[in-house]
């Protein structure tokens, strides 16, 4: 079975659009893009398009590739103080001269729709999340839409990033899975991944997950967004080889990516909703 993230994200965006319409609220997302990386520009553009589609206002702040940490912090501080802005997204990766941790730490946790602030990661880790990172939360939503319950399952995550691997493991733990995080220093990776009921690949290398790493009947989630030599987008999983043995698998494109964007929209609405109730000051 193919887990269709495109279709599922469309469904979630339609529902969200109705919900926003009925709420009388007008959420607004601010994106911060530093430099001219074409992939980052594309992703930010897609986020603004999704905003438009569901009735979320959006503004884009663009800084030059040579911007300093202080320049980015200044932009974030202005957005924190701007009562018109519900959510802030600083597009990653930032150019190497910028202190990414300092920037993430500067975002008001109540506007942190990416869920990368240590307070939001801490809340997620402690089982009482406020905003969870969009990609792993989108994976949870996709599984839930297909009736796949992680309870009691062996979940293996390949990758330990703050954006995906670690929060993915926390969300799966909160959902009662038994979780293993693996990474580049893991010894005998395939003996671990073969035991997974649900395998999440967040490596960043095309065709990294081959059929010998996947057990018969596993659910395979491909978080990779790699550009092949042909310039085409591809995931971390060798889809053609793995699809026949998987019970369910996400394609790239059309899998996790669109769910990431839909979840960002849901988080942004949530930020505005919580603010309107005065739940967050
Ligand atoms: N602060 C921050 N938050 C992010 O959420 C974030 C980020 N930085 N930096 C980069 C990654 C990557 N990311 C994607 C979002 C959507 C697709 C997506 O929708 N992809 C489409 C295809 C798009 C295409 O045509 O290339 C698909 O998979 O079907 C992919 C990747 C968000 N990220």
From TrEMBL:
<dbReference type="InterPro" id="IPR020631">
    <property type="entry name" value="THF_DH/CycHdrlase_NAD-bd_dom"/>
</dbReference>
<dbReference type="GO" id="GO:0004477">
    <property type="term" value="F:methenyltetrahydrofolate cyclohydrolase activity"/>
</dbReference>
<comment type="subunit">
    <text>Homodimer.</text>
</comment>
<keyword id="KW-0378">Hydrolase</keyword>
<feature type="domain" description="Tetrahydrofolate dehydrogenase/cyclohydrolase catalytic">
    <location>
        <begin position="3"/>
        <end position="114"/>
    </location>
</feature>
<keyword id="KW-0368">Histidine biosynthesis</keyword>
<comment type="similarity">
    <text>Belongs to the tetrahydrofolate dehydrogenase/cyclohydrolase family.</text>
</comment>
<feature type="binding site">
    <location>
        <position position="225"/>
    </location>
    <ligand>
        <name>NADP(+)</name>
    </ligand>
</feature>
<feature type="binding site">
    <location>
        <begin position="159"/>
        <end position="161"/>
    </location>
    <ligand>
        <name>NADP(+)</name>
    </ligand>
</feature>
<keyword id="KW-0486">Methionine biosynthesis</keyword>
<keyword id="KW-0511">Multifunctional enzyme</keyword>
<keyword id="KW-0658">Purine biosynthesis</keyword>
<dbReference type="InterPro" id="IPR020867">
    <property type="entry name" value="THF_DH/CycHdrlase_CS"/>
</dbReference>
<dbReference type="Pfam" id="PF00763">
    <property type="entry name" value="THF_DHG_CYH"/>
</dbReference>
<dbReference type="GO" id="GO:0035999">
    <property type="term" value="P:tetrahydrofolate interconversion"/>
</dbReference>
<protein>
    <recommendedName>
        <fullName>Bifunctional protein FolD</fullName>
        <ecNumber>1.5.1.5</ecNumber>
        <ecNumber>3.5.4.9</ecNumber>
    </recommendedName>
</protein>
<dbReference type="GO" id="GO:0006164">
    <property type="term" value="P:purine nucleotide biosynthetic process"/>
</dbReference>
<keyword id="KW-0554">One-carbon metabolism</keyword>
<comment type="pathway">
    <text>One-carbon metabolism; tetrahydrofolate interconversion.</text>
</comment>
<keyword id="KW-0028">Amino-acid biosynthesis</keyword>
<dbReference type="InterPro" id="IPR020630">
    <property type="entry name" value="THF_DH/CycHdrlase_cat_dom"/>
</dbReference>
<keyword id="KW-0560">Oxidoreductase</keyword>
<comment type="function">
    <text>Catalyzes the oxidation of 5,10-methylenetetrahydrofolate to 5,10-methenyltetrahydrofolate and then the hydrolysis of 5,10-methenyltetrahydrofolate to 10-formyltetrahydrofolate.</text>
</comment>
<keyword id="KW-0521">NADP</keyword>
<dbReference type="GO" id="GO:0000105">
    <property type="term" value="P:L-histidine biosynthetic process"/>
</dbReference>
<dbReference type="GO" id="GO:0004488">
    <property type="term" value="F:methylenetetrahydrofolate dehydrogenase (NADP+) activity"/>
</dbReference>
<feature type="domain" description="Tetrahydrofolate dehydrogenase/cyclohydrolase NAD(P)-binding">
    <location>
        <begin position="133"/>
        <end position="271"/>
    </location>
</feature>
<dbReference type="InterPro" id="IPR046346">
    <property type="entry name" value="Aminoacid_DH-like_N_sf"/>
</dbReference>
<dbReference type="Pfam" id="PF02882">
    <property type="entry name" value="THF_DHG_CYH_C"/>
</dbReference>
<dbReference type="InterPro" id="IPR000672">
    <property type="entry name" value="THF_DH/CycHdrlase"/>
</dbReference>
<dbReference type="InterPro" id="IPR036291">
    <property type="entry name" value="NAD(P)-bd_dom_sf"/>
</dbReference>
<dbReference type="GO" id="GO:0009086">
    <property type="term" value="P:methionine biosynthetic process"/>
</dbReference>
């Amino acid at each position: 079975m193919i887990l269709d993230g495109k279709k599922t994200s469309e469904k979630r965006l339609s529902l969200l659009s109705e919900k926003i319409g009925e709420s009388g609220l007008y959420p607004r997302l601010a994106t911060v893009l530093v430099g001219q990386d074409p992939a980052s520009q594309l992703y930010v553009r897609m986020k603004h398009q999704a905003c438009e589609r569901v009735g979320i206002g959006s503004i884009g702040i663009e800084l030059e590739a040579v911007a300093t940490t202080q320049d980015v912090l200044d932009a974030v501080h202005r957005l924190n103080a701007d009562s018109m802005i519900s959510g802030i997204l600083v597009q990653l990766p930032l150019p190497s001269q910028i202190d990414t941790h300092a920037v993430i730490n500067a975002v008001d946790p109540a506007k942190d729709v990416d869920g990368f602030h240590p307070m939001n990661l801490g809340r997620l880790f402690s089982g009482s999340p406020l905003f969870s990172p969009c990609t792993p939360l989108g994976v949870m939503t996709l599984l839930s839409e297909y009736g796949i319950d992680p309870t009691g399952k062996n979940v293996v995550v390949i990758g330990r990033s703050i954006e995906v691997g670690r929060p993915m493991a926390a969300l799966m733990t909160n959902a009662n899975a038994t979780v293993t995080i693996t990474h580049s220093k893991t010894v005998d990776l395939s003996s671990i991944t073969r035991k997974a009921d649900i395998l999440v690949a967040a490596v960043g290398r095309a065709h990294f997950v081959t059929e010998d790493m996947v057990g018969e009947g596993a659910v395979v989630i491909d978080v990779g967004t790699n550009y092949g030599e042909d310039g085409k987008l591809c995931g971390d999983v060798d889809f053609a080889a793995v699809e026949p043995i998987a019970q369910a698998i996400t394609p790239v494109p059309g899998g996790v990516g669109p769910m990431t964007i839909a979840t960002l929209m849901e988080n942004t609405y949530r930020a505005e909703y919580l603010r309107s109730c005065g739940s967050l000051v």
